[in-house]
Amino acid sequence: MLACCMEGADEVGPSVSEIQEIVIPAQIPMLPAMSSPKRVRTEEVSTFTVAVPTKNFVTLGLQLESTESGAPLISSIEEGAVQEFNKIYKHSGIQPYDVLLALDGTSSINSWEAIQEKLTSKLPDKMFLTLKRPRKIQVVVENTGNMGITLASSDKSVGVIIQELHPSGTMVEWNAKRKSQSRDVLEVLDRIIEFDGKAYCGTDLAKLLEEKKIWRLTVLKYAQGEMPVLEGLGRGGFC
Asked: How far is Cα 131 from Cα 95, in angstroms, rounded to an integer?
């Protein structure tokens, strides 16, 4: 886990009147125009940019999951500029599981060292974060002992990642039914983050999946190529 977080500043931070929000669809490395801010609810777009006031803060307060490829995942949001931003803009805030694609126009995929430097240096008055929000799907299946799936996780990972789908098994049957209804299906690199509505770290979730008869899962779907791929994952098969 890469913790991009420092001790909070003595000053509380900007007042509500000082904070302006910009949420627009964006492509890396373009930044939104500073004039005529446009508000778009983040539910309507999967890729968006927000301008977060950072004056009087020493940290954004983001905890990021380190990866070997792809952009980093926001695992949690702690005290800092982003948390304050979210209190004011509840419908357009930054959320856990969002992927950080760029910071101030610098791509996190191609320039991760530069992103780390920005996060640990003195913050400017405002920072632009370009993010990708995953879709969520719900899965309810019975653990038959032949699930046809291989999962990857670590003790610090956010949930578990689907590493392989086998040619046969319960999950293949579940996918076939969903396809017939033209609905989202499970795919390799999807991430299971919750069991019975509660979030777990990777190893704890993998243990639950072994023990429980009924799986009630929340799964995140990212665009292929943008999904963070963790380092040092352990594998577990449910064949």
From this structure: 10
Nearest 5°: phi and psi at 223?
Answer: -65, 135
Handedness of CA 154, 159, 163, 169 (dihedral sign): positive
8 Å CB contact between 46 and 132: yes
Taking the model in full, what pTM does it have?
0.70
Strand blocks (E) in the chain? 2-4, 23-24, 47-53, 62-65, 73-77, 99-103, 106-107, 126-132, 135-142, 149-153, 160-165, 191-195, 198-199, 214-221, 234-238
- Confidence check: pLDDT of 80 > 90: yes
111 versus 62: the higher-pLDDT residue is 62
Per-residue pLDDT reduced to its tens digit, 133-149: 999 999 999 999 899 99
The CA distance from 153 to 54, in Å, is 34
pLDDT at 2 exceeding the cut of 60 = no
Question: Secondary structure of the chain: what % helix, strand, coil (to 5)?
Answer: 20, 35, 50
Q: Which positions ≥6 away from 27 have C-beta within 8 Å?
A: 47
